[in-house]
Design a protein that fits this description.
It comes from Caldalkalibacillus thermarum (strain TA2.A1). By secondary structure, this protein is an all-alpha fold. Helix 1 packs antiparallel against helix 2. The radius of gyration is 23 Å and the shape is elongated.
Length: 98
């Protein structure tokens, strides 16, 4: 289960006595609210924020078109040949649509 589960588990425990007093319909409605809420994510520290902004910047720069995106994959492969599966997957994906 994700990082959010402990928080929701505690919230659900709080509502169980409520369900016994008011019935299953109210509990079901509250659980639907809880499950449709965005997951709790802890705030990023400064180092994580810098990394995230760097990734977003590189993604925007290389995601302009197919040529720049393919160049980004090639650059990554040249730096990390163990990622050969990525280029193969790209080729298979492209062939699937042709």
């Amino acid at each position: 289960m994700g990082r959010w589960w402990p928080e929701w588990r505690e919230e659900i425990k709080r509502w169980l006595p409520f369900s016994q007093r008011t019935g299953e319909k109210e509990l079901e409605e509250r659980l639907v609210q809880l499950l449709s809420a965005p997951p709790f994510l802890p705030a990023l520290n400064e180092e994580e924020e810098v990394l995230l902004n760097s990734i977003r910047g590189q993604t925007a720069r290389y995601n302009r078109n197919n040529v720049t995106r393919t160049q980004a994959y090639l650059n990554l492969y040249l730096e990390h040949p163990e990622y050969v599966w990525m280029l193969n997957k790209l080729e298979l994906f492209n062939n699937w649509f042709n």
